[in-house]
Design a protein that fits this description.
Elements (H helix, E strand, L loop, with lengths): L9 H9 L5 H25 L19 H12 L3 H11 L15 E4 L16 E4 L1 H7 L27 E8 L2 E8 L6 H13 L2 H27 L1 H14 L8 H11 L1 H10 L2
Antiparallel strand pairs: 1-2, 3-4
Length: 280
């Protein structure tokens, strides 16, 4: 799901994280590299616009006195925990309600799109911080340790816009008197690179399983209502309801879970009728 990154003055954020560091020597080291960290933002954006993350130097440090762990500390202790830094952390967190990776669970944390272990200079860069759920954050981890080409990276929620391209599809299967959902990537309208990057996300954060389970639970909650509608109004009315649900969803992303869910139901109406006819 493509969204706009929240507008935050990076210079002010860095000041909030650095200015009150109690360790004077550590504070001085970060002050010395602050202007270079700001320049790194321009590099990040230029590479992100082309999805060329693989061309960014790994574990690059601007000072021999600042380690990767120091940059991790800047995020963990200053952005997340300090009073001044926490203001910016919460601002980024609250910019979204739903996880920008899976698109269904609530936002609970921030993920480093480029992991802070591999790309320490972006540890507190807002454009590199993605509001997401804890599950996706955990599953994603430092996936980019082994990434060597652009196809190895996730789609960036701030830079890769596929909202108007239908790449998520699915179907209902009728197996052993049960309706089962399956979700998959439809490559009809996307490039090979986009397909590979989407597949990377699907596999690592287990979107296929998540969506199939969520769809099954949702259908079970609605099945009594659907059966009554079918018995009283017929198949045509049931299909029209699914189509109307799909059309009336006020969501810009054509790959939104709810939109695809109702698209699947509309297309699988014959199997749904078969299932409903078997209920007693």
């Amino acid at each position: 799901m493509k969204v706009d990154v929240i507008s935050i003055n990076y210079n002010e954020l860095l000041n909030a994280c650095i200015d009150r560091i109690q360790d004077i020597d550590r504070r001085k080291r970060f002050i010395k590299v602050k202007s270079l960290l700001e320049k790194d933002k321009k590099l990040y954006l230029s590479k992100a616009n082309l999805s060329d993350y693989h061309l960014i130097q790994r574990k690059k440090l601007h000072s021999s006195e600042l380690s990767v762990d120091n940059h991790k500390w800047l995020y963990d202790e200053r952005l997340v925990k300090s009073k001044a830094g926490r203001v910016y952390y919460q601002k980024i967190m609250s910019s979204q309600e739903i996880c920008l990776y899976c698109g269904v669970r609530d936002v609970e944390t921030l993920d480093h799109f480029l992991s802070k272990g591999q790309y320490p200079n972006y540890s507190v860069l807002p454009e590199n911080l993605v509001p997401c759920c804890s599950k996706c954050n955990t599953l994603k981890g430092d996936y980019d340790i082994s990434a060597i080409k652009k196809e190895d990276y996730f789609l960036h929620p701030y830079h890769d816009d596929l909202n108007k391209i239908k790449w998520l599809n699915g179907e209902i299967k009728f197996i052993k008197n049960e309706l089962l959902f399956d979700f998959y990537i439809d490559s009809t309208h996307i490039t090979n690179e986009q397909e590979q990057r989407l597949q990377k996300m699907f596999d690592i954060i287990e979107i296929r399983e998540l969506y199939a389970n969520k769809a099954s639970r949702k259908l079970k909650r609605e099945i009594k209502f659907l059966r009554n509608l079918y018995l009283n109004k017929g198949e045509k009315e049931l299909k029209e309801m699914f189509s109307n649900k799909y059309e009336n969803l006020n969501v810009e992303d054509d790959n939104d879970f709810e939109k695809v869910y109702y698209r699947i139901l509309s297309q699988g109406i014959k199997l749904i009728i078969k299932y409903l006819d078997g209920l007693t």
